[in-house]
Amino acid sequence: MFAAGLIILIFGLFLDFVLLPFGFAFTVAGIIIMVLSFFLKPAETPEPSKPGHKFCWFCLNEIPVDAERCPVCLMRQK
Ligand SMILES: [Zn+2]
Asked: Per residue in 28-54, pLDDT tens?
């Protein structure tokens, strides 16, 4: 999310540079998004409830960290 804010900020600075009217709005939006990205936690990567467990990449069930195949969906783990 920080990168998205940075891209918008650079885009806003570019618009400021070429004197287009919306440049300032994009610059402010980019700064706001970058600041928010420090306070908002990423929505993904939840923690497994049991220690020594991870989420299956395919079905997202909790499985042991060292499992080669998911016991639920039998998909090979990377
Ligand atoms: Zn699975």
From this structure: 888 999 899 888 876 666 788 889 999
Within this chain, do residues 57 and 77 fall inside the same structural domain, yes or no? yes
Same domain, 26 and 52: no
Distance 53 CA to ligand 1 centre (A): 13
Cα torsion at 45, 46, 52, 54 (round to 10°)? -60
User: Cα–Cα distances in Å, from 22 out to 5, 12, 15, 26, 32?
Assistant: 16, 8, 7, 6, 16
Expressed in angstroms and rounded, the spacing between residue 46 Cα and the centre of ligand 1 is 16
The model's pTM is 0.41
Distance 69 CA to ligand 1 centre (A): 8
Q: Which domain holds residue 65?
A: 46-78
Number of domains in the chain: 2
